Amino acid sequence: MNGSTSAGARQATPSPSLSVFSSVFLGPSSGGVFDRAFVGCLGPVHSAARTASAAQLAQALQRTRKRTLGLMQAWQNAMPDLSVPPLPGMNPPLWEWGHIAWFQEWWTVRNRQRHLGTRSASSGADFDASLLPDADALYNSSEVAHDSRWALPLPNLAGTQAYLAQVLERSLEQLQAVEADGQGESDEHLYFWRLVLQHEDMHNEAAVYMAQDLGLELPPALCWREPASGAAVAQEKPVGCSGGILLPEQAYTLGHQGPGFVFDNERQAHPQVLAAFEIDAAAVTWARYLPFVNATGHALPPHVRCSQGVWQAQRFGQWKALDLQAPAVHLNALDAQAWCQWANRRLPTEAEWACAAQQLGFAWGQVWEWTASDFAPYPGFEAHPYRDYSEPWWYHHRVLRGACAATSAHVVDVRYRNFFVPQRRDIFAGFRSVSL
Ligand SMILES: [Fe+2]
Question: How far is the CA of 207 from the centre of ligand 1 (A)?
Answer without folding.
Answer: 12
